[in-house]
């Protein structure tokens, strides 16, 4: 019983909970004493084609769809996201260009400013990545949205539209310029509004638009106009520059005006050697076969192809006139406001604030661009005439009233206001155009005004004098006040000068302006580009316009400039080859045209230009050297000193052999001896000088050099001996070969002279007098004499004994030298050729040579040399007959040789000699008849 | 013996035997010679097949012979200066002479001096006409060659100075010779110069087509009639042959090696001053300062014959034989007028009253009645009247035919409706 009760108690024992004691743990309590790790999933599984996303897990589709959201913050966020996405994945741009561009373009007209700003930023980024040809298909859309934004009723949107325009102008000027029809009117509407028809009738001549002034913009009306005009200017610039150039129209404006021109047919250019050896095949008829080339000036029928498309519209004068008719009155109004708003004090009307100046500068730039819109010359003339008729009085009244303009000094206390203004300008985005120099403004004004002056009519010139006068004064002062001008301003000024000279046709004006330019030209330390520009200006003026305008041809300054050219060439030396080439480009045609001033100056400086040591002809590059040699042809006279210089130039080896032969030829052609120049009254080259020039060139050494050579004791000297009666000075291989080429040409020229006997007589005397007494002779001189004499020798003329002896000495020395030359085959060939020609052609020479072999005077070592020379002569078949004639002499020498040698063993050389001798004699025996002749 | 088709006309500067002489192109035998004076280079020309004109060397007149009266100098035309070159137009209407740096243009029918063109800066060395006389090319010692349109030069009023159509300014030394190809205004011109180049240009556009650079200055140039070859006479006596249409597809050229030898005519010892090719392109004539005239076979490049002159040869050309040359009793159709020495003879007061009426378009018209425009109007109205008449008749015919056609169509449609 008890146990049962105890058991029951045990089962249902009540746990006493007491205050302060811990509650005992329940038996079934879960042990939470373990640790676990979480599985972290950073991303959800994605489909394979969903593409990359931004940091906010948005892909391109999401972003594009968010652009349609009502909330502007979300739109802006999406734009930022797009930019981030596209910059991370540039390939996406190509894929989604159409969607992205169309969506972004739609936001140009968004009413929230930050969204528009973001859209512009995105557009700028995209534009950097896509080339124009890829954007072209979407461009109609872009430009439609741009137009929409530009004509939007909200002014803030209009302002932002200009930024879009900036971006497009920067990256796609070509595409944008095709949309000019729409955009130009948009520009007008930005700063003006259409007059109501009634008022338009009242103010006839003021155009159909009137300027608008809105008060609720953040910027002043002037600043707003400036921003618009800036864009209009750059847009017109794009139109002008992106126009496909028409045939034969060379854009000759600004810096490019004095640059070179290029033909449209590429001519075939070959040299004779290439052609003769079959390398340069000529196919002329491909250039122009049965169909004349498209560049032909002949038009049998008008072009059926309508080229250009949309761009055609702005090419003709009429369309430009139409646009200008509305624009120019507006510009004039703006000008008046800019000028008038500033003129607080009447005495300093010409001083302008920076802002007004920028505005005026833009106006003038736009006027200039308007004129350039028509590419054809005749159209341009029509347009100029139209401008003159319609606006000359207005322009004169407004532009010229306070010319030249200056910058007003801003007083110190206004600084605060200025800071504010600058901030405003930054807000309006006009930073680029605000800092305009007064010089730029004035120069542009001159350019615009000068285009209005017409060429040719006398009565108009008188009319124009009142406003052309100040311009002339300004130009003269600007150019001649000694300041250095930047390249751009100078180019513009020169353009104005050119136009004034050509249109005004007065000698006074021409000299006045050219004097100013010349002052600028004479400044020291000009930059090379500026110097080149001035040089081109003058040379174009001389070469192009001189023929049509006698007043230019007679200009004193131009003559003075031409006369200064050779001096400059000398002074320049080798310091700037490009500039020298430029100078030569003018000197050459001027010399060809026989300009007296230039030729006189050239004649005066000829000796320093053609100086053999440091003259231009040796220090300049090959092309210029060639020109200099060609200019020689036009020199009025060749005094003896110049010929001495030229002869040295030929021989010093600093001009190439081909150029030297050209030089020799042109001296030859100028001489009356050559029979080419028919006129008898002026003799450019005197006969004495001519012959002495050729003789000096032939020898290659002047008399002083030869004299100096007699006393020297150099390494190159081969001592004289019995076998080599002259002591030979061995020249270098290059010098020898160079001289060899020249000798060839000299011989050819002398050969063509009228009387050969007289010519030979002169040369013989010269050799006798100058060379015969020499002990040391350079090898090239020997070779030259040996080559020249047989070529010039007339059959009926007997050379003198002195000459023959000298020739035999030369010949012997050369033959001796020949045996020592191993290294150069060419030199050996040349020397042998000369010796051979002399021996075979000049009578009695071979006999003299043989007679001079005194075997008993020779020492032991020289015997083999003599034997080698003899066998060389014997081996040559062409000489054999001549040897036969001297057979007894020859036999005598060989007998002496064998007798004198007397050695026990027969050396190789002796065997060779005897063999040659026997062969020659045996051939001789069979031809006994031949012997009787001699 | 039948009269030859072509003859060789040549002259030298010595003039001992004759001034100029006519030779047979095949044998080199002399037919005729004309005596008196001597002729300067590039100034011997045949006018209209009836006269030979040659400028006297170093003097200021031109010698004239009637072509059939060989020994007798017929006339001397006195010029304002020494004539450096002379050319008569192929149609025989105009004569051009280069006198110092100016070009004088005379009209042959009246002898009036029509224009003095002074666009060259130095002496004019050569003048050539195109074969249709529409253009001429002048080359000078100022390195320039100018292409002129004859009609624009002739028709301009005196207030405007005539402008050349093109200025060829790529030579860098004086121009020595010019050759004009065939085909009138579409011809090609070859110019030779001392700057060692020969350049080929197009008259119509003034563009350079080809420039060949040689080792020597080139004194004379010519093209064969087909313009396959360019022949260039060098100052060293060689004549170079440049092939202008070397076919790249050369089936027949495989066995022929183009070495140096077979493209040069060698034989002259001094400057080659004149070159000329016969009509069929097989013969090449060359005259040189070594006092010989040589005839070459173009194909084999061999010298066929040579004639020795007594002085440097100044002119040598193969010309079609004029009809009158071998008929001793013939007379020129038009007598040679007096050449006037001044522009606008009426103003000078020395008019001889030759009785000829000057018909020139332009300001100098001597016929006062009716301006050019009025005449044009008249002509136009006349033409309109004619065309109206014609078109009226045509219209009638058309109406008839239209009616018949419409009938046929009506019948056809009826048939269709039956089917």
From TrEMBL, chain A:
Segments forming domain TEX10-like TPR repeats: 557-922
Domain annotation Pre-rRNA-processing protein Ipi1 N-terminal: ranges: 134-236
HEAT repeats: 100-138
One GO cellular component term: MLL1 complex
InterPro entries in the cross-refs: ARM-like, ARM-type_fold, HEAT_type_2, Ipi1_N, TPR_TEX10
Subcellular location: Nucleus, Nucleolus; Nucleus, Nucleoplasm
Chief location bin: nucleus
UniProt cross-references to PROSITE patterns, sorted A to Z: HEAT_REPEAT
A Pfam family it matches: Ipi1_N
Keywords: Nucleus
Residue numbers spanned by region Disordered: 1-29
Keyword Transport part of the UniProt annotation: no
The keyword Nucleus appears for this protein: yes
SUPFAM superfamilies xrefs: ARM repeat
Membership in a protein family: Belongs to the IPI1/TEX10 family.
Protein name in UniProt: Pre-rRNA-processing protein Ipi1 N-terminal domain-containing protein
Classification of source organism: Eukaryota, Metazoa, Chordata, Craniata, Vertebrata
From TrEMBL, chain B:
WD repeats: 117-158, 189-211, 265-306
The keyword rRNA processing belongs to this UniProt entry's keyword annotation: no
Pfam entry (one): WD40
Record keywords: Repeat, WD repeat
Record carries keyword Repeat: yes
Gene3D superfamilies: YVTN repeat-like/Quinoprotein amine dehydrogenase
SMART domains listed in its UniProt record: WD40 (SM00320)
UniProt xrefs under PANTHER family: WD REPEAT-CONTAINING PROTEIN 18 (PTHR18763:SF0), WD-REPEAT PROTEIN 18 (PTHR18763)
Protein name per its UniProtKB record: WD repeat-containing protein 18
